[in-house]
Structure formats: C-alpha cells, structure tokens
Amino acid sequence: MSSTTPSKLEKMLKAGHQAVTSECGPPRGSDAEAIKEKAQLIKNHVDAINITDNQTSVTRLCSLASCIHLKLAGLEPILQMVTRDRNRIAMQSDILGAASFDIHNILCLSGDHQSFGDCAAGQNVHDLDSMQLIQTVRHMRDEGKFLGGDEIKRPPSMFVGAAANPFADPFEVRVPRLAKKVAAGVEFIQTQCIFNLDKFERWLGEARDRGLLEKVYVLAGLTPLKSAGMAKYMKNRVPGMDVPDEVVERIAGVPKEKQPEEGVKMCIEAVQRLKEVPGVAGFHIMAIEWEEKVPEIVEGGGLYPRPPLD
Amino acid sequence: MIVANGKPLEEIFDLVKDHRKILVAGCNECVTVCEVGGTKEVGILASALRLHFLNQGVEAQVGETTLQRQCDREYVVGARETVEPYDIVVSIACGVGCQFMAEEYAKIPVVPGVNTSFMGGALERGVWSERCQGCGTCLLAQTAGICPVSRCAKRVLNGPCGGSTKGKCEISKDVDCAWQLIVDRLKSLGRMDDYETLTPIKDWSTDRAGGPRTRIKEEVVS
Ligand code: SF4
Ligand code: SF4
Fold this sequence. Notes:
Chain A has about 300 residues and is an alpha/beta fold. Chain A has helices at about 10-15, 35-40, 65-70, 90-100, 130-145, 175-185, 195-210, 230-235, 245-250, 260-275, 295-300, and strands at about 20-25, 50, 75-80, 105-110, 160-165, 190-195, 215-220, 280-285. Chain B has helices at about 10-15, 30-35, 40-55, 75-80, 80-85, 95-105, 150, 180-190; strands at about 1-5, 20-25, 60-65, 90, 110, 115-125, 125-130.
C-alpha cells in the first residue's frame, strides 16, 4: 500500500511495522523548553509524538505551536485538535497553519468538557464533532477544498487519526462507532488507556470480524500506573475508564515505593500480550508526566530498536 | 415552554433601590406553569419588597399586575394605565417578556426579576428539564426523537463521546448521556442500523449563529 502523505507514522504502518507513538502535554506557560526536553527523552523510541490540545480542558501552550517546536527539532509531531474550543473557520485555519510547517499527522477529538478545567465558566464551541472534523481534514486533503467549497492552494497533507474508547458506554455501539469513524475517513486510531485487556481484545475482534481493520490502523493505548492511588483515581473518577479490580489489587499489593516499578512492569506485560493480538497495528503510550519511562516500556515490550524506513 | 428561575431577592432589592414606585409584573403563561412568574409569585415578590422597604424605613409603593402574555405587544400595550404610574417595573416574565415591556415603555426602567433558563418540560411537579435550543433545523427524526443539540453537553451529533459512563454524561452522574438515550431508543424502535448513518456537518445559520431570527407567516400578516 503506498502512502498518501509524507507522514512517517503512515509509512511505518504501511510497511507493516507495529508503530509506537507517545504523547507530551505542553506546559502551562510560554517556555517551550519543557516540551522539547520531554520529546528528546523519547524521540529514539517512538515514531511520532502526540501533542495534547488543552487536555482535561486546562489552558496550556497550544498544540500547534508545540508541534512546530518539535518539527523544528526534527521530530514527528501529531497535532491533536479538539472541537471544543474552535469553530470550523479556526480549525481549518489551524490545519493550514500546521500544514505550512509540514506537520503531517492530526488526531481529531471532541475534547473533555470544559467543566473539568480551569475555565469551567467558559463557552464551548462544538461547531463540528470529532467525526465531522475527520471529514473536514479528509475533504481539505483529498478534494483540496475548504468546507465552503473554495480551492486550497497547497492543501494539507495529513495522515488522519482519531481516538476510540472501547470502554465507554454503551458497549454495543463501540464497534459501530469505529465503523462510523472509518466511514468518516479516519486512517489511524489511538485507543483510550487499556487496563481491561480482555474487553479490548473482544472489541478488536469484533472490529476485525467486520473488516474494519483492513481500513484503519488501531494503536493500542497504554498508560503505566504510578501508584495504587492513581489506579483508584482512574477507576472511580475518570469518565469512560475501565480499570478492573485485579489491576488495582495487583498494584496495591506491593509496597508503596515499589508501585511505580510494578506499574511499568504491568504496562510492559500488556505490550507483550497485545503485540501478539492480530490487528494491533502499534502502541500509543501515554505516560502522563512520566515520559522518562517510555523508553523502558518500549524496550521491555520488544519494540526497540525502531525499524528503519527507507 | 420557557423555564425560568427567580433571581435572588438581594439582587432584586439592589436593582430597585433607587426607586419608590415599583411595579411587579408577572405573566400568565410559561412562568406561571414553572411557578416563578405568575400571579402567586407576583404577590410573594411584592410582599418581600414591601417588607424590605419597611425594614429600611423607606416609604415605597409596590404594585402588582399579571399580564396575559408579556411576549405579546397587544397585552403589553394594554397594560399602559397600570404601568405608567410607576417609576420602575420588575418583570418576572421570561427575558422575552421583559424586553417587550422595555420596548414599549421607553421612559420607565424595566428590570428582570428572574433568570430565564431554557426551553423544556415538566418531569414532575417542581422538576423541569431542557429539551430544545431552538436550532432552527430540527434533527429529531434522525436521532430517534432525542435532541443531541440541547441534551448532549458537547452537542456531538455523532455520539456518544468517549466520556459516556453507565448511561450518564461525563459532566455529572446526575445527567443522562443523550447518546445513551438515543441508542436505547433506536434499539427499541428496531432502528440500530440507522446509528451508522453519519450526521453531516450542521448548518448552524438557522441557529443563534445566524443572528437574531424573525419568522414571518405571510398569510397572517395584515
Ligand atoms: S434539533 Fe434543534 S430544533 Fe430540534 S429539538 Fe434539538 S435544538 Fe430543538
Ligand atoms: S457523555 Fe454523552 S451527553 Fe455527555 S458529552 Fe458525551 S455524548 Fe454528550
């Protein structure tokens, strides 16, 4: 399969390698050093790096500017874009801005509700939803046109991704919803953090049976737990998260100072198990503010060194 | 109907503090049904104002009236004799009624005594729930009769988002996920296949985004 964009991530996947992506959250200020440093920690172990877009609705240095910093440092960014904060004019404009710096990957999301963040009293926009943003990028890239119909001079050339949460409710629409995103034109999926591996495998199996995995690459999302407290928090407080009791019990069963190590070990075991599952096209490792652990997980999971691309 | 919520009394006291002839004006329609702005509430607010002025040792006159509809010029104009002796009106109709009063009585300040909230219905006595944001191009046929514009916190037209948990919205365990409701209803109608139809990018020009809307029914306009 030939690539349609210059994206390294796309090339990696199309060459049949299991891809590895990770993500960095931008700082709450204008000093870009922090994000560049985080990216340097992981750059040899991943193919591309997501930059979150005001995650959990907390105002931060913008994803686009952060992506530009990475791009200028020679790394491959994935621009995350949520539909919460911008209307279709702003989103198309930012897509062009990213394209002007040859940013070749985008992840289309609706974003967390603003009530979770530092501007709970703010408006949200949601002019488009995540599926419609996927359609928008595909339209701009493939038709070379704006939503309004006018031609784009030098259209964006972006590999188009989205998130999927196999654990949100209702479970029966989880596969149809993936089918819907595929119909909208998504090309790769990064999943929500997987702690319930059985349920993820069931979801992926159903997606495979529907022939969806021939049309979209699914990267399994993994997050190393730092402590039993974090496991409990994610289980009870983070919407749409499925952390089974045995996961909480396992990390809670080791002494506090050993819990981070246990969390990393569990993450590595998850990579090792999911690597063998047909249809897992790669991994998306979200080591929330714990980027230095990503190399260990990638190596422990047998995903290192990263295969060369010619 | 339009659902409103009474403003805190302190706020209303502050709004009228420079006036001595105050008319509390209610409305017999939506705000009566949602129990914030009908004759009964006019009486309660007027008494509260009288008591407030009495406590302040201030002599003030507080009048009461309830219009059939404050969102209808005919009734607003018809209240002229009642309204004009006063030097401020506290309207406890919705924001529409309050504005109609203000438009008609150019020389008299008209202030709102309620916060107008949403278009909704009564689930039970004392409990009202939002159902519509008047987007101007109704999607209910595609969404099994449940409105994602007004009932989904992110207004996603192809939901649910990843935050839906046990039938509830990510913003609160007390809020139903609109998309869970849509899926449940599609299922009970035997229409789950429809779920996979992508809802296209919406034309919001018929919504608030298109600017203030006016509707003219030609055959009725004289
Ligand atoms: S789709 Fe629009 S018109 Fe229909 S109920 Fe929802 S907000 Fe109201
Ligand atoms: S959880 Fe449901 S109602 Fe809440 S924002 Fe997501 S789709 Fe909308």
